[in-house]
Amino acid sequence: MFRKSILAASVVCGVSGLFAGAAFADDKPDLDIISKIRDEGFNHSQVMDTLRHLTDNIGPRLTGTPQMKASNLWTRDQLTKWGLENGRLEGFEFGPGWTWESVDVRMVTPRTDQLYALPISWYPGTEGEITGEVIFAAMSSKEDFEDYRGKLKGKIVLVDAVRPYRDPTELDAEARRQLNEPIVRLTDAELRDEVTYDVPEAPGAGDDFWIEYKSWGYYLSAFLQEEGALAIVRRSPRRNMLVDATGYQYLEGQQPTIPAVRMATEHYDRMVRLLDGEEPVTLSLDVSAKFHTDDMRSYSTLADIPGKGRNPEVVMLGGHLDSWFMGDGAVDNGAGVAVAMEAVRILKAIGVKPKRTIRVGLWGGEEQGYHGSYQYVLDHLATRPARTEESFQYMEPYTKEYGMFPVVKKPGFEKFSVYFNLDNGSGKIRGVYAEGNAAAAAIFEEWLKPFHDLGAKTVTMNDTGGTDHEVFDDIGLPGFQFIQDPLDYGSRLHHTTLDTYDHAFEKDLKQAAVIMASFVYNAAMREDRFPREPEPRKRDEVQED
């Protein structure tokens, strides 16, 4: 998930009862169809088979890799096998893919030890074993470079500061809960805890942090290459031997030329302590990694259940098919893909004939910045001008164009009805974010009623971020993400080596698929197109009567 936002840190505004009676007459769910969806989804499910193939058979699906392309082809063919039409791949410019084959990191002095580390994506291998003296040179901005200029040649450089381990009793309530109860389900009290609307900040607030984060890897590797460093060692942002080795330096022609690994926090911190005690440390690294340049495009998978008429409106659902490489991409976001695929399988299995075309989108490149879903927007719905400031040079198209005007609509804009996304782990659906759309909130209240017995009751007027629904919402089209139980997504799995099939909960995924299928069916059968928010406009524009 790109720019993750997990519910435990979000504000949830329960709106139960606020919109009673406000939904349109045709938004009463067809309970006969709901019963069929529940029967097919609970008693004849294939959701775990789908997830198992994506994770155990294909494995991690880093954007641009052969595994990602294999998942595109397999999902297209599987959707076609289930009876969907026009199964296809839609591409976007990306750059080289990257895979790793092996890694061996050892402390040689002051004693020998096998260390737990993984190569950082889009960094080269070592082309054989390299051995070098370790230096601790913590850097977090370009201003820090001068402190180490001329001191790093031939060194293996530890570049991240050490954060002290905090007494668990000093952590905030949510952090303590994740530490003591790694698998978390939302309580009724938590779901109704915040009952007022969280007034949003100015558009783009917080983007400076993300721009700095995405750019920093390029600046850091360029400096260390210039200084003649032998290799980079970074500290995993996780504890308990969990390794997150995400790297974003994938732009064509701008990949680093110096090897780099992310090391388990406990092993990294030990080396820093040794160095602080003036004990020399030597490491050996042997990393085998490969760049894939045969096809510099990557792809999303799409398929349709056609609606009635020659040019029907479109209802969409989906999640991102790509993943990071540390685990198998099971909960981020194989689970969301399996649920979306299961939802359309259910609808085909019960023989629905929708008014609107139901289109599933399994997006590529989400982890690097919504590449696939935003390319769909650019190809079919609308375009925006891009920022040209130097600070945006390393950013993906979505960030460069976010909030820019004018929004130039394409023919598909008016035919688009709504998009539903799932990408917050493998937990069951507990409700939905209405993204400030009061009409949508009223409709969702009705659509959730048949699923109160499954724990899905909450509608919030607040926004959420970090998933592909944003690319639709930001141009004024209805795009929504469901509220999900966190389980151990935030505590252990997100972007780590533990993101495997073993951490997916079958009952949760069945429940999610049934609810997503029902939402999509309801939207496809409405008399009118799904209601929209006011169209986005520049902050200094005055809306005329």
What do these coordinates show?
The chain is of the alpha/beta class and 545 residues long. The protein is built from 15 helices and 18 strands. The longest helix has 21 residues. The relative contact order is 0.20.
CATH class of the largest domain: Alpha Beta
As for the number of domains, it is: 2
Overall mean pLDDT stands at 92
What is the quaternary state of this protein?
A: single chain
Number of strands: 18
CATH topology heading of the largest domain: Aminopeptidase
Strand order of the largest sheet: 1-10-12-11-15-18-16-17
CATH superfamily annotation of the largest domain: Zn peptidases
Give the uncertain stretches in residue-range form.
Answer: 4-14
Q: Which CATH architecture of the largest domain? A: 3-Layer(aba) Sandwich
Computed over alpha carbons, the radius of gyration is 24 Å
Give the overall form: globular
Largest sheet: 8 strands, mixed
Number of alpha- plus pi-helical segments = 15
Structural class: alpha/beta
N-to-C CA distance? 40 Å
Helix coverage percent: 25-40%
Strand content: 15-25%
Short description:
The chain is an alpha/beta fold. It folds into two domains: 38-95 and 294-525, Zn peptidases (Aminopeptidase), CATH 3.40.630.10; 101-167 and 217-290, 3-Layer(bba) Sandwich (Glucose Oxidase, domain 1), CATH 3.50.30.30. It has helices at 31-43, 47-58, 66-81, 173-180, 188-191, 207-227, 265-276, 330-349, 371-380, 397-401, 412-415, 438-448, 469-473, 489-493, 506-525, and strands at 85-93, 97-109, 113-115, 117-119, 130-136, 156-158, 231-235, 260-263, 282-292, 297-305, 314-320, 357-363, 382-383, 408-409, 416-421, 429-433, 458-460, 479-484.
